[in-house]
Inverse folding.
């Protein structure tokens, strides 16, 4: 997905909005400008997540033939715009898509702000709006995909099925590791889709130091016997504990469950 700001959404500031004006970034496949919350916001969100992802910027003035922003007057922030956006998605889209948002407060009027929302391409499409339709993105806006277009619908459902199968296979492969004769407590945290974004650089001294501190907090006073470097990431081994932290963001924890035999 194209990022018109060139930086993470968490780092956005008011000056980054002016960059959109200077570069004359128009609406299109990845960007949508709105003066306020539109009635069809759920359709816009669904169209982004069902296609390639994109950005919605609420509090922008782009009323011109080229659909480029000329100013960012902002919106009233007294009703918590982030919460309002979340409620619209939860009440009108199934399943609810992932998104992240940043409310940029206006420096000249702290009662107003610009809501920037990043919507990634969905891992488990299609996302259906409460009117029962599936919306996708084109160069000018969001249009419903005709229900007779089986090729597009099949592609969306197949993508969802493939991602679910891939995650299940990865989890099963990881959980089958270890001594099958021992009772094990196993926990996995797995981002989806797999390997979407690898942590790079990963094998650096600063990261190892931070991971050691984390291992100490998990095992209290019992330090891991050693740290093993694997192609996928780090493995911390203790007497009956094992913690794996992988470059893909996956975290695995394995712990042997003691068994007692009555005599």
């Amino acid at each position: 997905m194209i990022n018109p700001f060139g930086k993470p959404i968490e780092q956005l500031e008011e000056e980054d909005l002016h960059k959109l004006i200077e570069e004359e970034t128009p609406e299109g496949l990845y960007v949508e400008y709105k003066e306020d919350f539109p009635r069809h916001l759920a359709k816009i969100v669904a169209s982004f997540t069902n296609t390639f992802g994109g950005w919605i910027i609420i509090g922008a003035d782009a009323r011109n033939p080229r659909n480029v922003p000329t100013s960012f007057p902002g919106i009233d922030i007294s009703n918590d715009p982030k919460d309002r956006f979340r409620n619209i998605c939860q009440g009108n889209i199934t399943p609810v898509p992932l998104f992240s948002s940043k409310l940029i407060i206006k420096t000249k009027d702290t009662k107003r702000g610009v809501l920037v929302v990043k919507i990634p391409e969905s891992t488990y499409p299609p996302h259906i709006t409460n009117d029962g339709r599936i919306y996708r993105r084109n160069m000018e806006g969001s249009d419903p995909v005709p229900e007779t277009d089986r090729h597009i619908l099949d592609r969306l459902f197949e993508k969802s099925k493939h991602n679910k199968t891939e995650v299940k296979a990865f989890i099963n492969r990881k959980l089958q590791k270890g001594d099958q004769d021992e009772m094990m407590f196993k926990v996995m945290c797995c981002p989806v889709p797999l390997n979407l974004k690898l942590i790079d650089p990963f094998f650096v001294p600063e990261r190892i130091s931070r991971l050691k501190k984390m291992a100490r907090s998990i095992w209290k006073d019992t330090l891991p016997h050693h740290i093993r470097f694997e192609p996928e990431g780090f493995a911390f081994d203790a007497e009956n504990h094992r913690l794996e932290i992988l470059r893909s963001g996956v975290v695995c924890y394995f712990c042997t469950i003691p068994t007692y035999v009555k005599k």
